[in-house]
Amino acid sequence: MTDWYSENWYQATEKFFKAASARGDLRWCSADNHAFDIPYVKIGNGPNKVVINSGVHGIEGYFGSAAQNMFLDTFAASLPRKLLAHYTFVLIHVINGWGMQNRMREVMDTTRGGLVDLNRNFGVDFENKSALPQNPKYNIAHDLLLSKPDKIEKKNAIKEFRSQHLKDGVWAAISNGQYVHPYGLFYGGAAPMTENKMTMKIYDEIMQDAKSLISIGLHTGLGHFDRKNGIVSSDLLVSHPKNHKKTKFFDNVFSRTNIVHDDKAINGPTLLGDLVDCLEARYGKKVPVYTADFEIGTGEFPIMSPIFKRMDMGDARYDLLQYGKINSETWSNLTESWYPSDQKWRDAALRRAFVMYAELMYYLAKRPVLIRGIR
Ligand SMILES: [Zn+2]
Questions:
Q1: pLDDT > 70? residue 374
Q2: Rounded to the nearest whole angstrom, what is the distance from the C-alpha of residue 81 to the centroid of ligand 1?
Q3: Domain of 158?
Q4: Domain assignment of residue 243, yes or no
Q5: CATH code of residue 249
Q6: Based on the structure, what is the number of domains in the chain?
Q7: Do the domain assignments include residue 370?
């Protein structure tokens, strides 16, 4: 399984390019400055589109890329012709190339300043500044998160903050997205980023003749990793309440995967500017659209993991703002907490992705899809 992982964006893109060219119609979406173009491949020619995207968050490393390369070498090699007449499978490889190469969750906004989380930048109307989504609860946590790194005091302060603000929604609001602090956490930006525009261009092209869309993003971070036994949790995040028909759709498809629904999303999205809600808003009026994010767990300490993750992100920003670069210890903490270097984790993450693909293919074909060439 190690063959499917890469060490840098160039290697990952070359692997994807080779495997994808052999399986389908490989295309490129070019960046304005030709720095990090986005390759994608279409397999089949059915009107129902099944899209798997990866690399929205650079800090999550090469799991998504590896999972896509695995799909190309296994499932894609033996998809039944009938299935390919009904469905088009599209893999969009590494949306955030800069973040991947620089191991940052976000992209740097070199024009306006700030670190922009692409998954808070989709579908936001930046023209009308006064109508930007508001998240005042985030402001309460901002100073603490961006305070001077301190292993013991800062950790305890964040822990205390979490226990104080678990019930009033402030802790949850940290990750919902905000448009006020350019170097704050989960900043959604001040304009659509290049990567955001490229992604929508790709989806628009895919959706031209579409009768339906299933779109799944590959992510890591949320959930647990049992290092001793090499077991990872996996959740499929669906941005609707439990009984919503879209949540039930994923319940039907993925019986072995934990479906995490968003009970707060009754009148609108809880997460601001995320891709899944953007896709539903953009295409959902014309055709059925089912979108979710697949999350592989990386937290070794179930309770402390979200605290460490927020702290590591805040520390990295402190370092960047004060010293212009991230301290090596902060760096190591940050990268390990989102994309563990542990081989057991990497193997387990791919095994979970394999099960996800198998369940999806079973649902689409209404029978198991046999795999050729499994290593
Ligand atoms: Zn992510």
A1: no
A2: 33
A3: 126-183+304-335
A4: yes
A5: 3.40.630.10
A6: 2
A7: no
**176 and 195: one domain?**
no
Give the separation between CA 359 and CA 141, rounded to whole angstroms: 40
pLDDT in tens, 90-141: 999 999 999 999 989 999 999 999 999 999 999 999 999 888 999 999 999 9
Residues counted in the chain:
375
CA of 244 to the centre of ligand 1 (A): 23
Question: How many Å lie between the centroid of ligand 1 and the Cα of residue 105?
Answer: 8
Give ion ligand 1 contacts, CB < 5 A. Answer: 57, 219
Q: Is the pTM of this model over 0.90?
A: yes
Query: Do 361 and 321 fall within a single domain?
Result: no
What's the CA-to-centroid distance between 57 and ligand 1, angstroms? 5
The rounded Å distance from CA 99 to ligand 1 centre is 12
Note whether 255 and 361 are same-domain residues: yes
Q: Which long-range contacts (CB under 8 A, 24 or more apart) does 123-130 make?
A: 123/273, 123/277, 123/278, 123/281, 123/282, 124/179, 124/188, 124/189, 124/192, 124/272, 124/273, 126/189, 126/190, 126/191, 126/192
Q: What is the pLDDT of residues 204-250, one digit of tens each?
A: 999 999 999 999 999 999 999 998 898 999 999 999 999 999 999 99
**Separation of CA 86 and ligand 1 centre (Å):** 30
Determine, yes or no, domain membership for 310: yes
Same domain, 282 and 154: no
